[in-house]
Amino acid sequence: INRISAVEFYFETGRWAEAATVLETIAEDRLPAPPLYKPVIYGVAALLAAHRDDDVEAREHLAADVPVNTGAAPVFSQYPMMARAVLAERDGVPWPRCRHGGSGSRC
Q1: For the chain (length 107 residues), average pLDDT per consecutive 10?
Q2: What is the DSSP string of the chain?
């Protein structure tokens, strides 16, 4: 859990190399990630790959079995959703869903 927090912190503060290093240590453990944290692990990994212009790797991370809106911590879903939006924009497809209705909604 501490490493998941570290990944989020490093990514959110622009310390992407450190985030990638922590993700590598998580992958090296070869332990199954709890479903709650999969969106952070695979979503941040996909975003980092997309920012390196490695769309193939980004799509591989997104192809992992990543639950979205996990109930207990739906905020974790922001990472795979952002990665999908980056890839959709690159593909020339506008990000199609703004599911929050009403004024002041954000996509």
Answers
A1: 90 96 91 83 95 95 73 75 89 61 40
A2: -HHHHHHHHHHHTT-HHHHHHHHHHHHHHTPPPPGGGHHHHHHHHHHHHHHTT-HHHHHHHHHS---SS-SS-GGGGHHHHHHHHHHHHHTT---------STT---
